[in-house]
């Protein structure tokens, strides 16, 4: 098995990956700044967005190392190489392509490939994935994730695909290590990045992080 890079610290700490997918990338730097202001520091720029790699490089340069900026919808080795050359901190895919996973892992870059069945989850993990993206998560909901975790408890799963802001906690409670959320979080800020829309996005980011934060309390501590 290929050596496995660790999950990005920004993702493991916040448990949220914001997915930036749009017709073009012109508004994504402003969207990224708004998300970072709200505390979301793991951002996926999908390659289905025109100008995605240029935006990735720009956002990474503007926000610095505290924010992890990765490339999404990476389905070929060529795309993976281009994304890594652009400075991607991680790769995300909707499918299990072992060449993409191993290529990223060989370079020390985390890869989060998409899988649905136990066989796909295991194949992605065995190839060197840092975590496996359960995709599309909404099709089976938190219960599907819970059932996958039962026989494969050692494989971290990131719930992505149709996950709403108000559903994130349910996926984490079912055993997800993190969630990925796109349009339900952005709500059109990528298409119309007005100051009001960006301020509202920052507020939603804070609300989401509050919802997914787990507060650990000593059971013997006094109330």
Description:
The chain is α/β, with parallel strands linked by helices and 223 residues long. It has one domain (9-208): Aldolase class I (TIM Barrel, Alpha-Beta Barrel). The chain is 43% helix and 14% strand. The strands form 2 sheets. It has a 7-stranded parallel β-sheet with strand order 3-2-1-9-8-7-6. A two-stranded parallel sheet has the order 4-5. β4 (91-92), α5 (98-106) and β5 (111-112) form a beta-alpha-beta unit. α2 packs parallel to α3, α2 (28-37) packs across α10 (195-212) and α4 packs parallel to α5. The longest helix has 18 residues, at 195-212. Residues 215-223 have low confidence and may be disordered.
Spell out the blueprint of helices and strands.
Elements lengths: L8 H6 L1 E5 L7 H10 L4 E5 L5 H12 L4 E5 L4 H9 L5 E2 L5 H9 L4 E2 L1 E2 L2 H10 L4 E3 L2 H13 L7 E4 L7 H6 L4 E4 L1 H4 L8 H18 L11
Parallel strand pairs: 1-2, 1-9, 2-3, 4-5, 6-7, 7-8, 8-9
Helix/strand class:
alpha/beta
Written as H for each helix and E for each strand, in order along the chain, the element string is HEHEHEHEHEEHEHEHEHH
What is the overall silhouette? globular
Roughly how many Å is the radius of gyration? 17 Å
- If strands are numbered along the chain, what order do they take across the biggest sheet? 3-2-1-9-8-7-6
How many strands, which pairing sense, and closed or not: the largest β-sheet?
7 strands, parallel
Are there runs of 5+ residues with pLDDT below 50, and where? 215-223
Residue-averaged pLDDT, rounded? 94
Care to count the β-strands? Answer: 9
Helix content: 40-55%
As for the number of domains, it is 1
Tell me, what is the CATH class? Answer: Alpha Beta
Strand content: 5-15%
Q: For the record, what is the CATH homologous superfamily label?
A: Aldolase class I
Give the number of helices: 10
Ends distance: 48 Å
Architecture, CATH level 2? Alpha-Beta Barrel
CATH fold naming? TIM Barrel
């Amino acid at each position: 098995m290929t050596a496995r890079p660790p999950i990005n610290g920004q993702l493991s700490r916040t448990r949220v990956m914001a997915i930036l997918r749009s017709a073009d990338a012109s508004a994504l730097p402003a969207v990224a700044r708004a998300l970072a202001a709200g505390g979301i520091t793991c951002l996926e720029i999908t390659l289905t967005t025109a100008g995605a790699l240029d935006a990735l490089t720009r956002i990474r340069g503007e926000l610095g190392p505290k924010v992890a900026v990765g490339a999404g919808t990476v389905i070929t080795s060529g795309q993976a190489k281009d994304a890594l050359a652009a400075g991607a901190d991680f790769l995300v895919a909707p499918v299990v392509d072992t060449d993409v996973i191993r290529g990223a892992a060989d370079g020390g870059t985390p890869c989060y490939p998409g899988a649905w069945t136990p066989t796909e989850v295991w194949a992605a993990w065995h190839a060197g994935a840092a975590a496996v993206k359960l995709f599309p998560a909404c099709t089976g909901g938190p219960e599907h994730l819970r059932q996958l975790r039962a026989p494969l408890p050692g494989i971290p799963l990131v719930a992505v695909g149709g996950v709403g802001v108000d559903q994130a906690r349910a996926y984490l409670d079912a055993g997800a290590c993190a969630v990925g959320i796109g349009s339900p979080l952005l709500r059109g800020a990528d298409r119309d990045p007005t100051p009001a829309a960006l301020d509202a996005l920052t507020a939603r980011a804070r609300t989401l992080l509050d919802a997914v934060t787990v507060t650990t309390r000593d059971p013997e501590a006094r109330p």
